Amino acid sequence: MNFENILVEKNKGVAIITINRPKKLNALNRDTIQELHNAFNDLNNDDLVKIILVIGNGDKAFVAGADITEFANFSAEKGEMLARKGQEILFNFIENLTTPVIALINGFALGGGLELAMACHFRIASDNAKMGLPEVSLGLIPGYGGTQRLAQLVGKGKAMELIMTAGMITAQEAKENQLVNHVVPQEELRSFAEKITEKIMRNSPIAIGKAIKAVNANFKEGVNGYEVEITEFGNCFNTYDFQEGTKAFLEKRKANFKGK
Ligand code: COA
Questions:
Q1: Which of 108, 162, 220, 226 could cross-link with 61 by S-S, CB 3.0 to 4.6 Å?
Q2: pTM attached to this predicted model
Q3: Pocket of ligand 1 (CB under 6 A)
């Protein structure tokens, strides 16, 4: 995989995608969004990859938003297309991956940057991180799922306030509002994430993928999450990992999952 705007490393089941435009605070331009799509797609189809971490290069920003220079002259039609395509190929795409994706928010996560972090399955922030959806300060609204996912994570009232004020909150405030799960010193962000990835990787990848699908079902219009859960629960019984997991428990040994 050759990319210009991102770096991808793989090590013992963990893939790390680093958004690599530090001079532009890792702002998401069109090429970066396409490269991220390609990388996520490849990694999700790689059986050796059990978990994907996303971080921004440098110590200042995760991602400072969509690249404002690219849409400054857009018409309504082009604006709608930008949001639709972005949601489809990146933000909704990540949310629906069966490989767990964790955002490591290592600095500013603003606009499209916070939307990217919110599309991930959960988030860990460094203590210097600042988060917000400042689009109304540009005469816009969030277009990459921010109005929906922020309200899902922090509740409607807090989401309304954050969006209307275009303000930024600290990592600690983000944790108090359930936007991030953990806050750690910046130099410990990767090592802390490693501890969580180790725990996740002990478990069945195929069961984790089905759990992601069932949890997401709660937030999909017209989908009955309980029904999705019942179906996916049943599907687990057809897997090697279920046979292995239960056998290992009864034999009092560690399971050797294959993700099948
Ligand atoms: N799109 C395009 N370029 C961006 C960007 C974005 N979303 N965010 C930052 N940059 C660029 C800046 O233009 C600057 O480029 P330059 O050096 O060529 O002038 C560079 O990144 C560094 O940013 P700068 O503003 O100088 O850093 P700062 O420390 O003074 O401020 C921020 C940091 C994050 C507060 C500020 O960059 C900012 O407000 N960015 C936009 C955030 C936003 O509105 N995002 C939502 C977009 S929809």
A1: 108
A2: 0.97
A3: 24-25, 27, 64-69, 108, 110-112, 134-135, 138
